[in-house]
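Action item from last meeting closed. Structure (150 res):
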């Protein structure tokens, strides 16, 4: 019986360690100092989603996003990173950037009821910005423009 308890404890600790590494491995920690992004003459205060868990959660279950704010997803490598509207309560504009913060794809007015559809960029991206719906049109954001990150 003691051996069985020890096996369960070791198994639980192993799973915990694996889970921790899964969430934190390849996190782009040097980018945590980002606090705002500028596209054209518009600036958004940004939160960072740079771990697996924070990227999965995204803006889910929030009732709104403050004006002039957004969530910046940071991925460890370029790819066709899809965004879904699971458990979202408001519409957003989604902007994909390459590793140099050049806009490669835009999805305007992604609605919560679109779930389980996933929105995917046409070109590989490294970063994805979620902002309030209508901001892309209001600020004149276009593909191939470059953002500045602060």
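Sequence:
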């Amino acid at each position: 019986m003691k051996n069985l308890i020890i096996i369960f404890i070791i198994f639980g600790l192993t799973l915990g360690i694996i889970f921790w590494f899964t969430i934190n491995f390849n996190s782009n920690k040097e980018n945590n100092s980002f606090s705002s992004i500028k596209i054209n003459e518009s600036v958004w205060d940004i939160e960072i989603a740079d771990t697996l868990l924070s990227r999965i959660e995204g803006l889910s279950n929030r009732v709104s996003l403050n004006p002039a704010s957004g969530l910046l997803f940071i991925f460890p490598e370029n790819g066709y990173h899809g965004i879904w509207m699971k458990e979202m309560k408001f519409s957003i504009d989604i902007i994909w950037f390459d590793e140099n913060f050049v806009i490669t794809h835009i999805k305007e007015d992604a609605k919560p009821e679109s779930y389980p559809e996933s929105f995917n960029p046409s070109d590989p991206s490294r970063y994805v910005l979620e902002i309030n719906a209508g901001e892309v049109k209001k600020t004149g954001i276009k593909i191939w423009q470059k953002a500045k990150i602060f």
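Note appended to the action item: The longest strand covers residues 69-79.
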